[in-house]
Structure to design on (416 residues):
């Protein structure tokens, strides 16, 4: 199918949008539900202009910071939260959670297959891992159970592993760079019930890319801890850095001692003028997440019509903002990422090249013409240079800019 003509592409886009109108309406309905949930939390905590005053120094009694964390807890239906700009990435937030809850001799049971590449050094899974303070260095045991071919949990294997009473059952909601479905909040809830009915343990969920895609989060289904990044969904494109952990008070207290130090916990860490952008980001997040979801659905539809294998499919229920497109050859993956970069508002003149990124096992190409470095709620695309050469597209602050970028990329790609 030859799409290398702008007028034909635009006409095709109108046809696709007409086909997707019910999908888009469903996304808007979810955004409305989540926007009400966020607004109610703001009102219940009586957010005021005085809460935007920047804290400094130790950050004792930083009212804006503390109120933001209470708002997060309300939104995510849990007891407590840590929301800090000092958390430098999603991987950092996850590391705080892992080291906060696990002790030497404990076992971390992962039930969703191998976690993100960036966690390999944190856990101690890589051959080049040295004495850098990984979980393995501290005597924490690691056990992994892969998902079944259909993307569901392997309950017989999990039941057997639970006999060893792991301290933590860990799962990753999003697919990462794996070719598998994103986990649903309902499916996670079933796992939580299954585990909790058998042993006392922490159920921890890497929630990156999944916030506000559905009406409920894993904490609404009983997860002890969810973890994510503020330059993804919950930052709404406004937060310039940061991460969050939300869950039970017990889990959050333990994680706060890892975030700062024992005895200080969440009492320290000044806002330094970042609190307002984090609060605004949360307020915008349901709407911005909906824009990213529409961009992903549109990309799935147009590339599927062009003959590529996409996941999720255009009419599938979305559980995160990630859209994968399988190209089967490196040249097409690279061309796709370069097309997305060329249609970005920032650094559109830059030509992405695969490179050996810290924390990844293969060269990775990334297109990220974002206002905030590394922000993946802004339109971005990336993928490891390894078979089957899948591009992972995510983000889009506005659907219109996302649509333009997809059409521009199609127009530039000879393969489409």
């Amino acid at each position: 199918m030859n799409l290398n003509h702008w007028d034909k592409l635009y006409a095709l886009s109108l046809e696709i949008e007409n086909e997707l109108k019910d999908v888009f309406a469903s996304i808007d309905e979810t955004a409305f539900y989540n926007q009400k949930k966020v607004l109610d939390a703001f009102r219940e905590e009586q957010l005021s202009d005085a809460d935007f005053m920047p804290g400094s120094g130790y950050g004792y009694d930083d009212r804006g910071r503390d109120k933001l964390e209470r708002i997060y807890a309300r939104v995510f239906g849990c007891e407590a939260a840590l929301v800090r700009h000092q958390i430098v990435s999603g991987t950092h937030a996850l590391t705080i959670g892992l080291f906060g809850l696990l002790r030497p001799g404990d076992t971390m049971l992962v039930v969703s297959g191998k976690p993100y590449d960036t966690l390999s050094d944190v856990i101690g899974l890589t051959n080049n891992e040295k004495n850098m303070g990984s979980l393995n260095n501290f005597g924490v045991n690691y056990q992994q159970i892969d998902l079944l071919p259909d993307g569901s949990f392997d309950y017989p294997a999990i039941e057997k592993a639970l006999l060893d009473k792991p301290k933590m059952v860990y799962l990753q909601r999003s697919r990462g760079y794996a070719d598998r479905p994103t986990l649903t909040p309902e499916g996670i809830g079933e796992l939580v019930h299954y585990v909790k009915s058998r042993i006392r343990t922490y159920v921890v969920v890497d929630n990156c890319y999944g916030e506000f895609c559905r009406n409920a989060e894993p904490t609404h289904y009983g997860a002890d801890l969810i973890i994510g990044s503020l330059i993804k969904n919950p930052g709404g494109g406004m937060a310039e850095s940061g991460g969050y952990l939300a869950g039970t008070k017990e889990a959050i207290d333990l994680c706060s001692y890892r975030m700062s130090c024992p005895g200080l916990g969440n009492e320290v860490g000044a806002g330094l003028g970042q609190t307002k952008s984090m609060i605004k980001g949360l307020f915008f997040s349901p709407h911005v997440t909906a824009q990213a979801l529409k961009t992903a659905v549109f990309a799935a539809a147009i590339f599927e019509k062009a003959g590529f294998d996409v996941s999720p499919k255009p009419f599938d229920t979305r559980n995160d903002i990630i859209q994968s497109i399988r190209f089967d050859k490196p040249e097409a993956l690279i061309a796709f990422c370069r097309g997305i970069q060329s249609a970005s508002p920032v650094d559109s003149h830059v030509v992405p090249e695969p490179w050996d990124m810290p924390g990844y096992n293969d060269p990775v190409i990334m297109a990220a013409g974002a206002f905030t470095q590394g922000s993946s709620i802004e339109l971005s695309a990336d993928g490891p240079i390894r078979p089957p050469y899948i591009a992972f597209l995510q983000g889009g602050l506005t659907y219109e800019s996302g649509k333009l970028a997809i059409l521009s990329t199609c127009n530039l790609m000879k393969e489409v």
